[in-house]
Amino acid sequence: MKQRTQVGIVGAGPSGLLLSHLLARQGIDSIVIEDRSRDHVENRVRAGVLEQGTVDTLIEAGLGERMLDEGLIHDGIEIRFNGERHRVDFPSLTDGKRITIYGQGEVVKDLIDARLADGGVIHFEVSATSIHDIDGDAPVIRYRKDEAGHEIACDYIAGCDGFHGICRESVPEGILTGYERVYPYAWLGVLSDSPPAAEEVAYCHSDRGFALLSLRSPAVSRLYLQVAPDEDIEAWPDERFWEELRLRSATKDDGAGIEPGPVLQKGITPMRSYVVEPMRHGRLFLAGDAAHIVPPTGAKGMNLAVADIRYLTEALAAFYRAGDAAGLDAYSTRALRRVWKAQRFSWWMTTMLHLSPDDSPFDRRRQIGELDYVTTSVAAMTALAENYVGLPLDDGGAP
Ligand code: RFL
Ligand code: PHB
């Protein structure tokens, strides 16, 4: 089958779906194609912390109803080290900004519902996707579905197909440069049918390694442990997980407050920082994880995807409204300025909180010095808070 659209979008994660939704609100037509099933993309357990700017973007786009009802607004985070709890308060340090706990799967469900209710086109479970002629005036996406070959002719292609997608790889050699850092640890993540162990998201530094206490609702916890990058998940039966979590998050005064419950999901995520430059080649624009990934310690992954999509939508809207391509030409530079600040923050949070096998005794003491500083200096806490709630979307994220 041959189809035609203005913007062909590869990937129905947060990036691709939000782009399709925002473009539709500007009267711009798109088709989304997705490798996996609708059920799979809606139920993948991933990010959970939304920056204020992400929340505002979703509300402005008419997607706020369920998020405002079910999302949990948090005023700060906890940092634990040396058996003590410290709190970083966001509103007092950032002029009233807060974060919202609302799972990525819920954002994806809201976006799919909105697109389908508006008559949007999303093809799930397609295979053998390839993109062609991004250097010319008439790029094409090809894919297979139900044993048949399909083609979408478009003006532009948005590569929203995540880190392992095909769009970035389709750019001819020698044009893109990748910048990468791989960390010597991974996260073992558990979703549990048990009430949250802490009132706010708690980042725990300990001599046994990092632990994170987070949540999805008043009844569901999301918990993580630092493990080796090549860790075998079979080595972590539930009892071992709960015991290790308790040891790493315990405080001197009142223990960890962990209540073990039925484990709903368990998985291991490697930790990597990656950026590709530029985020555009010809008629292909890369956005979200297709262009950059961060280690999850700063909770920035999905929020960065939303910021890219805002920039890309503004640029495409200016082009279709007035034939003005300046925004399209500036997209990569504009997005990368903010991306590198989020990279810096994610790298900083990660290296401050994890134990690295390469650390010397000096490094360990320096880490404690840094944690002590960041939890007592108002200047340092302000720097953490303004990054955590999200840097501004304009001016390259300059606060
Ligand atoms: P996504 O969500 O990866 O979506 C890309 C979509 O493209 C599809 N795809 C293709 N479709 C058609 N043809 C092809 N050839 C395709 N190749 C791929 C994929 O099936 C997928 O549906 O990228 P997007 O939209 O840019 O969104 C980015 C966010 O998903 C990501 O930044 C965050 O989830 C990162 N992340 C986390 N971020 C946090 O802030 N906190 C977390 O706890 C957290 N946990 C995670 C994560 C990312 C993970 N990944 C990518 C392995 C846990 C995991 C496991
Ligand atoms: C989560 O709730 O999944 C979460 C929270 C904070 C992070 C990363 C993940 O830094």
* CATH architectural grouping of the largest domain: 3-Layer(bba) Sandwich
Can you give the helix content as a percent range? 25-40%
Give the overall silhouette: globular
The fraction of residues assigned to DSSP E strands is 25-35%
Biggest sheet strand order reads 7-6-15-16-17-14-18-21
In terms of quaternary structure, the protein is single chain
- Which structural class fits the helix and strand makeup? alpha/beta
Rounded to an integer in angstroms, the radius of gyration calculated over CA atoms is 21 Å
Intertermini distance: 49 Å
The figure for the number of domains is: 2
DSSP strand tally = 21
CATH class categorisation of the largest domain: Alpha Beta
Ligand inventory: 8-demethyl-8-dimethylamino-flavin-adenine-dinucleotide, P-hydroxybenzoic acid
